[in-house]
Amino acid sequence: MNKIPDYFGSMVFDDRVMRATLSTEVYQILKKTIDEGAQLDLTVANAVADAMKNWAIAKGATHYTHWFQPLTGITAEKHDSFISPSPDGSVIMEFSGKELIKGEPDASSFPSGGLRATFEARGYTTWDPTSYAFIKGKTLCIPTAFCSYGGEALDKKTPLLRSMEALNKQALRILRLFGNDHVKYVRTSVGPEQEYFLIDKKMYDQRSDLRFTGRTLFGAKPPKGQEMDDHYFGVIKPRVAAYMEELNEELWKLGILAKTEHNEVAPAQHELAPIYTTTNIATDHNQLTMEIMQKVAAKHGLVCLLHEKPFAGVNGSGKHNNWSMATDNGVNLLSPGETPYENAQFLLFLCAVIQAVDDYQDLLRIAVATAGNDHRLGANEAPPAVVSIFLGDELNAVLEAIENDTPYCGVAKMQMKLGVDVLPKFNRDTTDRNRTSPFAFTGNKFEFRMLGSSNSIACANIMLNSAVAESLKNYADKLEKATNFESTLHEMIRQTIKEHKKIIFNGNGYDDAWIKEAVEKRGLLNYRTTADCLPHLLDDKNIAMLTAHGIFSEAEIHSRYEITLENYCKTVVIEANTMVDMAKTEIMPAIEDYILALAQTAVAKKTLDAAIPCSYESNLLKKLSVLIEQINIKTDALQEALITRHTAENIGAEAMIIRDAILIKMSELRVICDEAETITAKKYWPFPTYGDLLFGVK
Ligand code: ADP
Ligand code: MG
Questions:
Q1: Interval between CA 72 and ligand 1 midpoint (Å)
Q2: Which of ligand 1's atoms lies nearest the C-alpha of 326?
Q3: What domains lie within the chain, and their CATH numbers?
Q4: Tens digit of pLDDT for each residue in 610-647?
Q5: 33-82: per-residue pLDDT in tens?
Q6: For a substitution probing ligand 1, which of 277, 289, 429, 445 has the most ligand atoms within 8 Å of its CB?
Q7: Dist CA 507 CA 502 (whole Å)
Q8: For residue 322, which atom of ligand 1 is closest to its CA?
Q9: What predicted TM-score, i.e. pTM, was given to this entire model?
């Protein structure tokens, strides 16, 4: 076996390969494009394309593709081979700069939310040189952004890059005010912790709910669930260990910094965390990670479930988005500094995040809204649907002292004045581990914990970057005009703390009392479902902010509203149809078989000797007969509810019908079926149970 450093990144056209295969001149121009976004001309692109092609062919690639992230939430690729005919009947392998920079896939079958007029189906993909090209299978994949003929973004990467640029622009303004003239750019970094379930493929194949929807729609609670807390960080079983080993190797070859792996809280649940990197690369890597997790699982006779809530009654899966901002020379702007001056700057960036999260709670909630994630948020296993920030005791005390102009009794007892030379040095708080907060400060980064396991992290980071850019812009506008920088800064920080401290909560986020306080006393938003929060994407303040920073055009925002709600409705409708189908063609017939067997046993007993008691059979038979009647009624009711959605005038109204009628009818049907499962002989039950699925991988 090769050593990790020898094969790490072997499938990536990374800096090492660029240096080795490009002329110094071309390398330097490309590097400038990557670091500073400078334009590339065609001669340079041709040289890069040629080097990429030769490298890829030497690694066995036959095709190339523009790899992009449409609004389906997964990635897309259309493969073209490198071959080009020669007059003598042979082929040569070609790849031009033009083909590298731009592709024209047919966009008509990707969701566009009405953006793409049907007569103009063309879409464009454009190379994102900041994310390295890589080889997957036999294909050279070129990370790209995807837009319509009219230039509107049809993907998740374009607005993500725009949001990173917006934050960069505003952060640089602030840094200049603090005298940091040498910083060239500020980038956000992300380390996403990815949770997932692994189950046996043979069992998966027997459950149409898992196959069609990624989650179980039926299933009685097994005798054992997660109550023993014996899975979290427990010994990794051999089959899972073999899976993780191969997964790591595949990820490392792609230059993905897979670092940490462990068992999670629920049985069959695991986590993988990479080392953090620049946000757009982290986004590409996370999409690739999810794809490879599923591919490697298939090789091991397993299925990797990335759904947010594959099983009722045990924890679902999320994704923790660890986020920070850093300069090109490696200074983390969320790290308390060494000097008071650096600390004033740190506090300003901290305030920018606090204000951003408070002002745009709705956008953060919207960014993680999916039908699947609605099952987690607020279910005492993941943060509530109410967004709040955890800061930890020390930082909290610092902010309080600033707000009240009182002495700060932390590291040093002294007056908290941001008059820059008197702010004390304080330690970063790394010991506090509040797991219930949706948005926790963890020493030098924030951990946004509301993302669902299958979400693209692009969405959350687009909103986060944009909202922070907006706070920074407001601060820069004021500070640039200030006659006295220090006193204006001090007052601004004080004011921000006063106005936005309502978003800070250091207690237990799972506590019902908190939700009451958050909503009733603090006026924080509590959007329980996707249907509740999505309409607020169109609120004036949100459109104004997102368009002002050039993140989205108004048309793009409307299209995303449509697509997200459409996705919510379609997801639930597919689930409901699957339930109807399973109830009618699997569950009810199975129960009938069992009832028949019971009846036959009773008759056989009586025939043998009328004195043999058969109350067991007859009671059970009666119970099951009552249940089956109810299952039938509830199935019909669900089908009728599904029809009512056609009366909805628009997608917002349809989402309300889903929320208020269909989801409720689904859980009513489930309850009875699950009850029937508990009294039906296992050999009659038509598919593997929770116990089989959750404890089936050894
Ligand atoms: P845990 O939250 O499980 O205790 P860590 O806090 O060490 O684990 O790291 C979780 C994730 O945060 C990892 O992906 C790690 O690389 C990432 N991370 C660490 N520092 C930063 C940072 N400055 N910016 C963004 N992500 C970071
Ligand atoms: Mg963490």
A1: 28
A2: 23
A3: 4-155 (3.10.20.70), 194-217+226-318 (3.30.590.10), 335-552 (no CATH), 566-694 (1.20.120.1560)
A4: 999 999 999 999 999 999 999 999 999 999 999 999 99
A5: 888 777 788 999 999 999 999 999 999 999 999 999 998 888 988 899 99
A6: 445
A7: 13
A8: 26
A9: 0.94
